[in-house]
Amino acid sequence: MRRFFFLFFAIFLTTAAHAAPPSDVSIDDLLVSMKTEQTLKAVFPMIDKVMQQSMAMATKGKTLNAKQQQALESIAAKMVQVMREEMSWDTMRPLYLQIYRESFTQDEIDGLAAFYKSPAGAAYIEKMPVVIQKSMTIMQSRMGPMMAKMQAAIKQAVEEAQKSQ
Fold first, then answer.
1. 0.85 cut: is pTM over it?
2. What crossing angle do the helices spanning 36-58 and 89-103 adopt, rounded to 10°?
3. 21, 101 contact by CB (below 8 A)
4. Residue 153 CB contacts under 8 Å (≥ 6 apart), including other chains
């Protein structure tokens, strides 16, 4: 019976040790390996571009005087500044630490760090911006036809609802 309890506690303690929450140091090591801070900073020019495109779409076909144009540009600049502040590394790092700490074990963090430090992991990190950009381009090309289909479906549903009344 003693052996059973000893074996039970040995297995329990071993399992508990493997399921230990990751340390902040190990998570930081992983985030560095993943180039998370650089990736986050690389998003800002894309946000700027999206903001400019959104403003252009909102004012398409409208003539703005110099004062209106200046006000619009000022609002856009303020919005981008708020995003830059709210998504800065200093703001986001504690959130990443919390999310990774709550989502992964120490063993998983160690495994991920090893992967991202490997040649395959490094290649993955280096090529992901291009993959994401290509994905966004493809999705943008699909949005027009998808929106047209959605509008047609909504129109048909409205027409059918009106007929049934």
1. no
2. 120
3. yes
4. none
Q: Return d(Cα 33, Cα 160) in angstroms, integer.
A: 55
State both tokens at 165: 């009344």
Q: What is the pLDDT along the chain (165 residues), one digit of tens a residue?
A: 555 444 445 555 554 455 789 999 999 999 999 999 998 888 888 888 887 888 888 788 888 888 888 888 888 888 888 988 999 999 999 999 999 999 999 999 999 999 999 999 999 999 988 898 899 889 888 888 888 889 889 989 898 888 887
Tokens of residue 144, six digits = 């027009």
Q: Contact at 8 Å (CB) between 33 and 116?
A: yes
Q: For tokens 């200093």, name the residue.
A: 90
